[in-house]
Amino acid sequence: MWLSQLTDRNRQCFPDRVALVDEHRSVTWAQFHERTVRLARGLGALGIAPGDRVVVLSLDRVEVLETYFALARLGALFVPLNHSLTVPEVAEIVERVEPAALIGETALLERFADLPVSRRIALDEPAFAELGADEAEFELPEVADTDPVAILHTSATTGRAKGVVVDQRSFRAIALGWLAVSRPADDMVLVTCCPLYHGSMVVTLTYLAAGATAVLMPGFTPQRALAAVETHRATHIWLVPQMLRFMLQAKALDRAELGTLREVMYGAAPMPREVYAAAAERLGCGFRQVYGMTEVGGPFVTLGPEEHPAPDAVGEIIPAGRVVPGMSVRAIGADGREVEPEAIGEIVVRGPGVMHGYLHNPDATAEITTADGWIRTGDLGRIDRSGRIHLVDRTKDLILRAGQNVYPSEIERVLLQHPAVRDAAVVGMPDADYGEVPLAYVVAEAGTGRAELLRHLAERLAPYKRPARIEFIEQVPRNPAGKIVKKLLRA
Fold it and tell me: What's this model's pTM, rounded to 2 decimal places?
């Protein structure tokens, strides 16, 4: 019962320390522990039983984590969903999950009123706060760490979202390995800009295990994030590089007092060199890269502040880092065998953090799992002789141009080095002569011409790597985690 043990320990060690804070309220570790026990009893009295699945639809707030921890104590599975999904998208997931209840904010419950879930609980109504007040005698079940605790859905950048079934052992393994290398101080205050409805929430759970204070926001804006750091004297912030770019562009940055900030944690997408350099100069703090995947438990590789290059000495890419204790990583070739150090292969992972499998999808589970039990990340990369992982691209994004490998991420990095380019994405398009060639989508300042960008690329890339075509668009489609949704560009 890792999540239950987490609150048990922290209410003993730090009873009066703030555990969670949002724009409406804050709770200490003692209050959070008491509330999750009481809520678990209240939900159990309503008929939610061990093994039941409960969909959670809400913006980030204290009640969301209270719900997760209460359901874990009850032995039920929490199923957080992206509240920005369309009604048909949520309906498809609900049909597959078959939830016993739907817990969420009133506005979202109304928006998804047609979902076939009879038991609905509004977490922003007074009745939710009273749940469990009269259930002191309700006996909570024994829950094993190997029992499923959550179904976390993938980002669906290449197709339909898949439900990843994880247990409490996964959360525990990732937390203990991560904390062993990150070694947070007792006074850590974390502003989490990443939502609590997908695998990135494991970062928040991990630092909560160490007794940190988590500052939750109902949605990211650069002004809101800057204000949260200043108001709560945050020591850490967890975001994606695109969010950091927006913060650096915000007028509020000039007025913000950010002297307490020690570490910017970033993940989900590569960190552009110019964003890293600007942030390092303006914020004056350390940086930690977070490389993870929902199917393997969340964050399993990190590059800490002491290993980050100086802003003026960044190579083509910043290494993702080293694997955390307890998890194992390899790079394998097309034959499934481990490649030599420095050779490019697909990154695969094994360890106690990996998922049980995809919900009701054994074929997809088999496809992502090697014959000897390693999970395929779908990322191409190399592992150097110091154990650092250097990511190159996604296997599905690789462009094979007349037999030569072309990595879209390399072209994107070069495009972003042009001062007029604000964002870029590269996909492969069919070609009668070469099989496939790169197509670049670019967000740029007005007046920027294709010829100008092609000259920029020609000075930095071999001919076979250069895009056959450049298209200007107003915005690169990205999901809430900051990842480019290339299926929309291919369509």
Answer: 0.86
